[in-house]
Amino acid sequence: ILRCGFPHRISFSLGHIRDPNNQLQTVKNLRICVNNVVTSPSTSSAALGTSQNRLLSEVVFSCQPQEGVQSTVMRTGDYNLNLSVTTPWFEAYRENFFQSMPASDHEFLNHYLACMLVVSSTEAVPVEQFLKLSQEQHRIQHSGEYTDPKWFIPNTLKYYVLLHDMNEGDEQRADMVYEDMKQRYGSHGCYLLKINSRASSPPEEDEQIPDPWSQYLHKQNLRNQVSTDEPHNMSRLHFNLFCFYMLEEGPGVSSCLDTHPLQLDADSSTGSLLTLSQVDSDAKTSTGDIDSLPAGGGHHGACLTLNDHDHIRQFIQEFTFRGLLPHIEKNIRQLNDQLVSRKGLSRSLFSATKKWFGGGKVPEKGISEPKSTYGIQYPPEAPELQIRKMADLCFLVQHYELAYSCYHTAKKDFLSDQAMLYAAGALEMAAVSAFLQGGAPRPYPGHYMETAIQTYRDVCKSMVLAERCALLSAEILKSQGKYSEAATLLIKMTSEDSDLRSALLLEQAAHCFINMRNPMVRKFAFHMILAGHRFSKAGQRRHALRCYTQAMQVYKDRGWSLAEDHINFTIGRQSFTLGQPENALLAFRQILINDSRQTATQQAAFLREYLYVVKVRSVLGENEGCLPQLPLPFIHSSATRVYFGHERRLAEGEKQAATDVSLDQEYDQDLSVLWCQLEEQLVASANQGILPNNFQPSQSCLNSQTDNLHHPLAVVEEPIIIEVTFRNPLKVSLLLSNLSLLWRFTTGTLSVGKESTSDQLLGEMITNENTLAGKVSILSKSRQQTLDSIIIRGRQDLQIQGPRLNLTKEDKMLVRHGTDRRLEPIITSPMPLMEVFFLQFPTALLCGEIRKAYVEFCNVSAVALCGLRVASTHPDFFTFGSQPNPGSTENCSAYATFPTPLQPDSMSPEMLVSAPDFSQPSGVTEIPILGSTLQPGESIQLPLWLRGPDREGVHEINFLFYYESTEKGPKISHRVLRHTVFICASRSLSVQASACRSSASPHHSVDDKGIGGTLVFIDVENVNASESDVHEFHIVQVSSSSQHWCLHKYINPYNNYDCRLSSRERAKLCFKAMRCTHVSASTSYLETFCVQIISSSTPCGDFFFRCLQSSEFQQVNLTTRTSFSSKSQGPPPTDTGSDITSIAKKCNEIDLNIIVIWKAYVVEDNKQLILEGQLHVALQTIGKEASSLIPKEEAPEMMLLRFKSDLPSSVILPYLELSQLIRTNLCYPETFTHPFVKDSLCLVPVTLTLSNCSLAQIDVIVELRHKSTSSESLEVHSSFAWVGQTQYKLQLGRREVVSLTLQACFFRAGVYNLNTPRVFAKPAEQSTMCEASQQTACPALIIINNACPLLS
Amino acid sequence: MAVCIAVIAKENYPLYIRSVPSQNELKFHYTVHTSLDVVEEKVSAVGKSLADQRELYLGLLYPTEDYKVYGYVTNSKVKFVIVVDSSNTSLRDNEIRSMFRKLHNSFTDVMCNPFYNPGDPILSKAFNGIVSGMMVQTS
Question: Which keywords are on file for this protein (chain B) (predicted)?
């Protein structure tokens, strides 16, 4: 009737048992397992299987690793693994698996050995109850109705227990009943257990006694939840009878001893308590009566005092030593006797019968038991099984040696009978007992296990048994350190039918790999992944996640991206389903960040999963305040560009805004240096030529190359534009929408942060590389990411790492990064803001062309500005004009003109101009605006003259406008505005000028003011390349500018005043230049044609002086360079040399600047245009040609390569130059008629004019003796002679002109060359006479006619 | 014949890995990665003194149900792994050996390329061609 019991295990420290040979055998740590007898009418094995599986899965599920407790760091090779060494879930599984094994017929280990009959003392007639129970037990065992509780031995030990509740029943009566029992069953067969000494009381008043059963119960409860389902109806009844208070005594009908070697191994705790515990809460609730009881389901044994515990312990001890062990001992002896007696005849008999009848016996068995396809099955009490039974008994009492030999024998018998199942069982146990044998007299028979497993699996088709065997075997192998064998075995045991088992076994295999002497990390990882996979299939998500996470450690960051992605993906999924979206996000993020090599579809799947997780998370409303960080797209944070500037009007009508800085421009190091130089010039000129110490070039566009160490300055109410570069690493396109910038503003030290969004950019599709700009900074970007209609909103932080430092040693040793304050601007008080527009600004000009354009300055801010300046890389390109010039503006011509009557041969007018009027300090131009301030909103338009550069080609011209606030701002002292124009200059005219001394006698010139008539030849050639556009050039005027010379007269032999040059034509203009007396600077100009241009007025003069300046500047540069080089080469030339040279140079110097003003007729778009321009030529010395075109090749670089010293050339030079000191001029009648008939001698007066060109005193020697030096001259003047004084010594003062009258004497008519006098000159101070023969080049011919006497 | 061919750097990250497109690439990645353990075991099994005369070909690393994995280690510890279908019984040890030799030669050519940065993934077309040749002969 009473079948309610609970499995318990009891272990003892020591016990003794005698073996069949009467030797004392010690039993250690014996554990007793007490079970309820559940006579379930044979449930189908399938159902059993599922319930078992459910149970195991529950066990594994409930056993999770505690966070961070068991993890140990393992270091192998270059791997650092964080592992949990223990796997409690596996141990729990194993234990439960063993326990839930159904008892099978081929072995007896978990058959019941004894039966405990418990009756309460409150029972009316306990003895009767005992009888009933005893009968019941007998019925269960022997009637054959029940197959489930299997019994070890037919005559099961019965142990009678009278349970007495101290609080309830009558103690004396109990004692009496016990006495009665003792007489009936003997003192070793019964026991009176008194418990529940403590009065029942509310649990909270209880003093805390540790729950004695806590270490057992958690497993059992679980188990009961599963297993109590079926016998429910029956057990309900009995609870009513036997439940008392808190502690109900489950009146166990039977107890069975079921020890197992592994349990012995695993739990060696001594003196554990007997647990006769309470019904589990499930059962309790189903029994309505005890509902009212204060069901402290969590606490057991609350009514037990410590004495009661001792009682229970004593009881079990008594039971074991007085009842159980002697019983076992007796049985072993019996079995042994049976075997020994049987041995003699049976051995031979059996084998003989087998021989004779063997053919018939096996099929017979096979027919009777159709189930057994794996060999014969013995009836339960078959003699063949006795030896096995004995072996099992020996095993239970830890007599392993005997057990082994029994198993061994049994195995042989079974094998010879072809009873494979039995043989496998015997093999298994033989191996185990061999292992457990302490002294190890024989090597562990590993092949026994293998054979057993194989037989179980392949022959018997019993996976459960095979698994049990494998678990045992693996455990044994592990304890022997044979990890690789254990791993192989475990892996072999994995199969498709049970995911949970496979998962656990794979995990164990993985642990085997890592525990090997040379740990196999990768195998570990791989099997962990397999285990994780199986876990997830088995529904054990938490374990799956743990496996994957552990495997991840091996794969992470090692280049196995495909595997890594897969693991991450799985981790993400599992974490998400386990309700850890944070971890899921991290894992998915990792996939997306990794440089993925997946296919596009795979990436899309990853992305979708990620988006989904984020979406779900946001729907759940977690982290409402801050948006999630998005991993995609990548932000190239270092490529971020920050632009401080307002939205400029680019063009307005024909107005053209200054280019300034914009995000479209690429950063150029050289250019930025150039701009910086210009700004330095401007700032210096604004600060009286001194550059302030704290000067910082203003940067309005910051990028990775600019100097970002300082906080940039931004002006309040002016926008800041930030350009962020995104990259989508995926092959899938991302849709970005609603982009906005988040920023925080901090005032002073009070860090009152405020985050705010601004401006949104809508619908931006990024495919692979894309840049886009948002506005206002600075923290991060928030935005939505869309894919297949999943839209998530997240943010990405913009953090810019500065450049790597590389200055100090530490910097070089470590990787350090500087600060980057690009995104941390300081907002300053309002500053003026100017815009500059250009009107009619040309893009192409002819070289030297003058064009007028307008420039408009516009103050668009609310602050007045002043100090407007401009600096340029080409200061000679433009001018604002020196004075307002109202007259010329209306005219179509750029020049100021006044008409003059056509006066051929008229004297050229002269005009005195002082050069400083036009000069400018350096390259900075102050812009002449009225009042010098520009009020807010005001704009001013100024004319601007431009002159085409002298060199053809495309010129990049940079303007930098400078302005400052009227009130001095504390942070920003000034602001600048950049403008860059490209001018395409095409060739116009080439002007070449040369000067030479006129050979005409000074007396011939009409109004000679002194000596020094010089001829200036100007070659003008039309070199314009484009023949179609430019029709022709007119030379309008030639002006000159010099301190000493002026163009005097236009020598025009053809009287052709219209000098036109069509394509490739060349004209030669000839002027006479005179030395003028003005000391100050002067400009003389000479009109060639009808309209007079005031070349001294604004555009012309401005450009002339600007060009002069820049060219002078260049020359200075050049000379300093050359002098430097010559100095380094050797001693300076001697005094004499240098002196002479200087004198000679001076006399040759002319220093005349010529301005050629032209007009060009150009056809453009079928319209004829007249362009005007001017070209400048600087004539330096007589005889040298100067050109308006700058020679292509420049020598200076070559100078450095000279190997010879300068000395010889400097000595030679004076003689060449000295020949120019004195100009000689012979004056004589061209033809002279002399009647030789009358007078044979003809005397002709010849005047020799000597003029000193130099500024020094010159000693001159004139020799008239003609030494015939050249053969050519011989024949000619052999017939004439100089008469009179033939040598003169003179001294000529500076610029003195002396005439000598000479007489030539001719003897006959003919043509003579009079140019035979030789003139030697030397500077007067010169002591040594280093004479120079002066020019004798051209012959002076005279024709002497013989006057015919007839005519005369 | 081969279903997967991989070149693994000294530091055990893949320089090159290619498998037949018909099958799950991930599986091969796992297989190759796991085989590295065996490679290490085999390499370390040879004594240090014998390391110089060690044969580069390591033979069958381990058989799985469907595949046989063969290994080869160059003197610079670069590993070659060839995965062959288990059903393909025609392949003898010698043939595998010659495949590895061919692979090694081609790999040497790759390393000789002055534009190749040691440690970078192999992108060489010639190498790819050789590998394709080994995989194509399946039929």
Answer: ER-Golgi transport, Transport
